[in-house]
Amino acid sequence: MHGTATAGLYGGNEARRLQARWPSAGATSIRSIRALAPLLDRVLVQRVKAETKTASGIFLPESSVEKLNEAKVLAVGPGALDKKGNRLPMGVAVGDRVLIPQFGGSPVKAGEEEYQLFRDSEILAKINE
Q: MF terms per GO, please (predicted)?
């Protein structure tokens, strides 16, 4: 987990040891993702999982499967406020497929599923296919 508070407080090797011992260090854990309502310009996404099975039927271990930068938007906040107090429109909507940065965002865990919160401006692109 790059970009967590743990990595900033401790050196790289120490942070890796802590995260190996407590993998959810730095992640917020909730019971249900439906309990989470993003505020302002925040966007809740879930990364699209890479295929763990090859075309020939061989299953790949999770450690060898690279994380994709594609995600599905699950919830969006109402939008940030400008200096006059007017809401700025969000660039994405629920259901959109988007490209997200490989690192960053705020990790959130609900059960065994992992999600991330990004600011609308951190979303790299919308996939229109």
A: ATP binding; metal ion binding; protein folding chaperone; protein-folding chaperone binding; unfolded protein binding
Of 58, 73, 51, 67, whose CA–CA distance to 125 is shortest? 73
CA distance 81 to 31: 30
- CA–centroid distance for 62 within its chain: 18
Q: CB within 8 A of 115, min separation 6: which ones?
A: 33, 36, 44, 45, 46, 74, 107, 108, 109
Q: Which amino acid appears at position 47 of this protein?
A: R
Write down the architecture of domain 31-127 according to CATH.
Roll (2.30)
Q: What is the predicted pLDDT for the residue at 23?
A: 46
pTM for the whole structure: 0.67
Tens of pLDDT, residues 65-79: 456 688 999 999 999
CATH 2.30.33.40 in the chain is located at 31-127
